[in-house]
Structure formats: C-alpha cells, structure tokens
C-alpha cells in the first residue's frame, strides 16, 4: 500500500511553542470543513451529531479517536459490499453459462458498481490511515488528522473473498497474496474493466481449467498483445491470479486461475466454462 499523502501537520493539535493554545476551540471555518469532510466519509445522522459534539469540546485526540472508529466501521461495510457484489457477479456468470464467450450485460453493470465501491473503500482506507497517526493535545485545526482525513490519498487494498476477510479478522491482518490493490483512481479502475470486457468478448470459446477458465481465440496479433498487457497490469494489483497465454497452430488459449478461496473473483471477471443450468439466465 502506498503512503498516505496529505497536506498540513502530521498530528492533531499544536505544541505551545507554536504560539497556540492547546485548549482553544476550533475556528468556525475549521468546524464547517470538519463536518463537511466527515459527511464525505459517510458519517451522518446521530454519528455526525455526536462526533461534532466531541469536536466542539476542543479535544482533538478524543475527536480523532471517535472519528477513526466510525471510519473503520464504514470501511468494513464497504469492503463487505465489494465482496458481495463480486459474488453476485460470479453467480450471474454461472447462470449465464460458458457457451457464450462475452460478458453478460448484468455482469458489466455489476462491474461498474464494484469499481465505484472500491473507490469508496480507497477513500475510507486513506482516511483510516490518516486517523491512525499519533495523537496530540489541543483543539482541532486546519492541519489535524480529523480535518484532513477525507482528503488523504492511498491505494485501495481490498479483500478478494469472504474467506480472506474472515482470515484477516482472526489474524489481525489481510493476507497480501489474496487482496486486490488498485492505483490510478476511479477512472483507471473503470477503464481496466472496460478493456477486459472488450477482449473477453472476442473469445470464440471457453474450456474448463484447473482453478479457473481457459478462453479460446483465433490467431490475432492485436489480441495477443492486449491479453499479455492486461495480464501484466492485473497481476500487479491482484497477484493471486495466474495467467497463461499459449499460441499454437490451432489458435490461442488464455488461461486464468486463482486459489480456491478467490475463485469467485475469476468467475466474476472471466466467466465460467460450465454450460448454464436449465432455466438459467440467458
């Protein structure tokens, strides 16, 4: 994960040597920005009212601690949502079956929603990292973590499956080989999804593969280059994937696989080679 990048100070409050009063109440403009930024992080309703009350007490460490707890709770919910959407996309792919090479329209819509959800997770992860910085006494000001958390930036670090999330909860961390990290922001994530959709749609067939699926293509130098490029980029952010591109006289075969606990991710993006069940979505 990349380092958090923000402006301002590294911690809340200022030392007396800075000429400030550690117990002073924050400036009105700082209060307005704090409340607006908290709302951007999804803190609303009673949670926001209570948080602003702590802010108004002039106790930045207490504000930072309370805000960090709220942000972590929302981050857990967004990560859970991203996993649920991936599972839903995988289920649609299974219902669609492997007899059609392209990506079903419902999966494309879900992919767009997944990207938006991951962008929200990225903001919350950056805010959580900012709010985890050391506490310092005094009132909040324009440079403290409480006021700048919403503008922090980092690379999103998303659990790939519910199993991974459970393992993370038990171990206190996330297995680095079973997470997705994305760089470049929302547009880059959405653009990558579109690129995969385009090249998957050019497959002429599908075959089952150990741990995933094999897409079959006619000979096409442009497709070969695009598959290699996308595989390299995808592996850089989701290193639990394994990609194999074979070029033979009868055509090209592109195999995508992953560990069992991340199989839904493969299915959601690349589909399945199993025919749709009777009565399944067509």
Please tell me about this protein's structure.
With 282 residues, the chain is an alpha+beta fold. 51% of the residues lie in helices and 11% in strands. The chain has 9 helices and 6 strands; from the N terminus they run αααααβαβαββαββα. The strands form 2 sheets. Strands 3-4-6-5 form a 4-stranded antiparallel sheet, with helices on one face. Helix 2 runs antiparallel to helix 3 (60-96), helix 3 (60-96) packs antiparallel against helix 4 and helix 3 (60-96) crosses helix 9. It is elongated, with a radius of gyration of 23 Å.
Strand order of the largest sheet: 3-4-6-5
Number of strands: 6
- How many domains, in number, for the residues? 2
From the N-terminal CA to the C-terminal CA, the straight-line distance is 40 Å
> Helix amount, in percent?
40-55%
pLDDT averaged residue by residue: 79
Number of helices: 9
Q: Provide the structure class.
A: alpha+beta
Shape: elongated
Beta percentage is 5-15%
How large, in whole angstroms, is the Cα Rg?
23 Å
Oligomer: single chain
* Main sheet record: 4 strands, antiparallel
Q: Low-confidence parts lasting 5 or more residues at pLDDT below 50?
A: 1-23, 169-174
Order of helices and strands: HHHHHEHEHEEHEEH
